[in-house]
Amino acid sequence: MDVAADLLLGASCPGCGVPGWGICTSCRTSLSAAAPFEVVRSIASFPAVSSAMVYEGPVRRLIAAHKERHARGATPALAGLLAAAVSHRRSDGALTIVPVPSTRRAVRERGYDSVRLIADAAARTLCREGRSVEVVPALRHVRRPADQSSLDTTARWANLHGALAGERVDGPVVVVDDVCTTGATLLEACRALHAAGVETCEAATVSATVLRRSRP
User: Fold this and answer.
1) What is the pLDDT of residues 27-63, one digit of tens each?
2) Domain boundaries of the chain, sorted by first residue
3) Domain range 36-214, CATH class
4) What digits encode the pLDDT tens for the residues 6-19?
5) What is the C-alpha separation between 20 and 95, in angstroms, rounded?
6) Which value, in Å, is the radius of gyration of the alpha carbons in the chain?
7) How far apart are CA 100 and CA 92, in angstroms?
8) How far apart are CA 59 and CA 29, in angstroms?
């Protein structure tokens, strides 16, 4: 379906829109400059989080295109960034990757779970590098939170609390998502997994918003 749409509408780079097939050279160069960093949020119990890039420029547009415009050709590039963030969080040893789940409504509308696609591809990348990595969908939605768009940071944290339930996973777990903004989703995901009996839970994302003074 995506290939047919390209043929009808004209192919273009999902990161900047220039004509052509796939991600253009300029956007690939931007992604190659990724330098994973620690994500800091001023909230109690916020997990240890690593991200590959600041949420701006081509990576921001690629995530939006992958999620909302069926640009699945961007999956390998985003997965490479996520794999780098996971390795920054845990550089060796076996681990389980737990993707933050999309809602059923989002999956129906898009036809796929964007974060799960990126997580699966990132795991394959890490396995090729000799890591023992497994993707386990150990989180599920149990409550539909209110729309987050009009909420401030504190209200978002409160809104998401209790929205997810987790399943026990043995060994270290890294929760993954495409972007960390306020950090509320990652906080709730790790809370749910800890409640299910997971002892070690960290997180990694493709990108993250950061304060200017905290930029890597």
Assistant:
1) 999 999 999 999 999 888 899 999 999 999 999 999 9
2) 36-214
3) alpha beta
4) 444 458 899 888 88
5) 38
6) 17
7) 22
8) 11
Got the DSSP string for the chain?
-HHHHHHHH--B-TTT--BSSSS-HHHHHHHHT---EEE---STTPPPEEEEEES-HHHHHHHHHHHHS--GGGHHHHHHHHHHHHHHH--SS-EEEEEPPPPHHHHHHHSS-HHHHHHHHHHHHHHHTT--EEE---EEE-S-PPP-TT--HHHHHHHHTTSEEE----S-EEEEEEEESSSHHHHHHHHHHHHTT-S-EEEEEEEE---GGG--
CA–CA separation, 110 vs 113, rounded Å?
A: 7
Task: Give yes or no for a contact between 183 and 210, defined as CB atoms under 8 angstroms apart.
Answer: no
With contact defined as beta carbons under 8 Å apart, do 52 and 24 qualify?
no
- Here the tokens at position 19 are 């004509």
Q: Which two tokens stand for residue 41?
A: 């949020």
Per-residue CA distances from 176 to 24, 54, 88, 98, 187 (Å): 26, 16, 13, 6, 12
pTM score of the predicted model: 0.88
